[in-house]
Structures are given as structure tokens and as C-alpha cells.
Design brief:
The protein has 448 residues and is mainly alpha-helical. The chain contains 18 helices and no strands. It has one domain: MFS general substrate transporter like domains (Growth Hormone, Chain: A, Up-down Bundle), CATH 1.20.1250.20. Belongs to the major facilitator superfamily. Nitrate/nitrite porter (TC 2.A.1.8) family.
Length: 448
Amino acid sequence: MQIRHKANRIRLLSLTSPQMRAFHFSWFAFHVCFFGWFGIAPLMAVVRDDLGLTKTQIGNTIIASVAITVLVRLVIGVLCDRLGPRRTYTGLLLLGSVPVMAIGLADSFEAFLMARLAIGAIGAGFVITQYHTSTMFAPNVVGTANATTAGWGNLGGGTTQILMPLLFAGLMMLGVSETLGWRLAMLVPGVVMVITGLAYWRFTQDAPDGDFSDLQRADERGEAPAATKPGFLRVARDPRIWALGLAYALSFGVELTINNIGAIYFFDHFELSLASAGLIAGLFGLMNLFARTLGGIVSDLSARQAGLKGRVRWLFVALSCSGIALVAFSQAQYLPLAIALLMVLGLCSQMSSGATFGVVPFLNREGLGTVAGIVGAGGNVGAVAAAFLLRNEAIGYQQGLFILGLVVLVLASCALLVRFSAADEAREAEAYRDAVGAVHDGDALSLR
């Protein structure tokens, strides 16, 4: 995608430039999406007792919460190409807030299942976050920008695990019953989503020079108009996209799985209180504060040394480490050791996710939204597959996580299927050098 004036620096304390406003609003929007998407997960022990859910039914609700996201991410990617990230994100946040608040009306398994299915659409916000930063940042920092915004967004999985049990406990202290407490607690993330959606519309724009619609009308965009952009099927014919989708299934799929079962795993396996189990599970999500960013930083540094091949090799290494960490965590019987291995798993799996989207922007610039949508959907496919495994009454969570770790370890080599031509390597190497040179020269690309 030929968009001018991409930023080649990330100035975290700045909100004056459109690039940094997109950076901060996109990660915060996805953070809020996670708040709504997984707000109910740390309260599942209470919901289980209130609605009388079985382990299989809980598994089905987990599958519903991530399965629908596969389809919505594919659609959202196309909408980003057509409408731009600003309109797409605003619409997703406002519409997604409805089922988040409405889940409190569920009084049966079927109603609860449908609510979690509808809420799952919010997870598509990830695609918009990655798309928006990819349009705003130059090759020398795009991996870091993508990884950081996604990581700080995924951080919502950790804060949710911590905040929702505390919010629930606060309602209990006010005399609210458990049956009503979890329902009232879910109003909070819904309201925050509405506020964030309105702010996204007010303070962001699609590209450094303005919204896509304005740039197209002014003939300033320098690329084919939306009507002639490559279609979904044309972009999807590239097998490298599906290889990256599998890699993301092995990384983000594991992260979603831990977000969904982490609290109830520690609650049941180590016989902890709901608040303690949620706090420990939340530590996994809190690793996103730096872990996914680290994956993106190493990807950018690898590109400096070895070009696009360096990005791919780093992804393979990170995925392999993630598989080893998951196998080790699944076998931990001593609580302090389990917590330590959970942190290692969080580091490796989240670095893998960051490394994946350090490669995505270089596959098809004209169809970037479609590429991000397909790869992003892969993460949810991985989570769905893991949920089917873990819902089996004959397989405990511990055994299921062990099997999942072996699968990640065996399939990590899928990353090496992503290859680039000599022409692609040369073109991106030149773009990288130009971006780095602009930083040294202090030209208009850098953020002030």
C-alpha cells in the first residue's frame, strides 16, 4: 500500500501527530475490546454455578466466543481496505457493546451461548489495530509498532482477569447477590466500549494525510481506488498467508486459550479462591506489556541483519520456545513453579505473535487488510481447535495443555514456509535503508 508520510520513529509521549494518535487509540481500543470479549471469563466459576453449566457446555461457550471471530476478522480486513480503519473501528466498538451489556439478561445455557457468540465479533478489533499501525509506520519500525499496539491491546486480557473479579467482589460488598453481581459487572466494559468508539471517530484518521475517502476524492492516495483493489480470493491464493495464519494459530491461539481457562484452571487445579486464581491468570495477560513488543523489536532488528528472511527465522525460534514452555507448564504441580512457567509461556507465545505481525505487512501491500484478516483469523482457528480438545470430559485441562504444547512444537516449522523472492528482499531492504536514513537525517517522516 503506497501511503505517504509514514512515521519512522515511535514517540510514545506524543499525541500531536496522526501517526501517534492512531498508535495510542488503536492499542487502547483493542484493550477495551479484550475487556468486553473476555470480561466474563474470570467470572465463569460463578456463572457455572448460577446457570448450572457442565464442563462441555463451558467448552461450547469458549468455542462460540472465538469461533465467530474467525469469520468477522475476514470481513473486517476487507472493510478496512474499503472503508478505512477509523470508520470500521468505530462501528465495531459501538455495535459490539450491545451483546456485552446484554449478556446479563441470559438465564439459560442457550441464551448465554448466543451472547458469547455475538460478543466474539469484538475480537476482530485486532485486525483494525494492525491495519491502522501498518498504514502509519515505515518499514524500520512497523514490526515494533504492530507488536506494541497488539500487545498493549492484548494486555486487556490480563487487566480483565484482575479487574472483573475485583468489580464482582465490590458489588458483593454492597449487598448484591452473586446471581445479579456478574450481570451488573458486565455493564462496565460495554459502557467503556461506547465511549472509546466515539473517541476513535473524533480523534483519529485513516492515514497520515487524512481519511481514505478524502484522499481518493483529492486523487492524493497514489494507488488504485477501492473498486479496483485486489479481491479477497486473489489475495488468498498466496500460500504464505496461510502459513502465517497457522503460525498465528500456534501463538495467539494459545494466548486466547489461556485467557479463557486460566482462572478456572488455577481455581480447580490448585484450589484457589476466585480472586487469587484471576490474579494469577491475569499475570499471563500482563506479559503483553512488553513481551509482544519484544517480539516485534527483534523482528525489526532481524530485518536489519538478514532482511525478510531474518524476520521469518525469528518467528520459527519464538514458536519453538513457546511449544516447549507450554509442555513444561502443563506438567507443573507446584504452584510457584506453575506461576513461573506461566510467565515464561506468556513471554514466548506473545513474542511469537509479535514476530508473526512483523512479517504480515510485507506480503501484499495492496491487500493488507485481507492479509491481516486471514492471519488474524488463524489465531482464533487455533483457539477453537484447542477449545474442542479441552472441552472433552475424558481429558483434563492439564493433559489437554500438554497435547497442545506438543502440537505447537511440531508445527512451529510452518513459519519457514514463508519465503520471499530476491526482488522482494531487495525492494524491502531499500525501503528499510530509506527509513533508517530518514531517521538519521531528521527529515519530515520522523515524528516530532
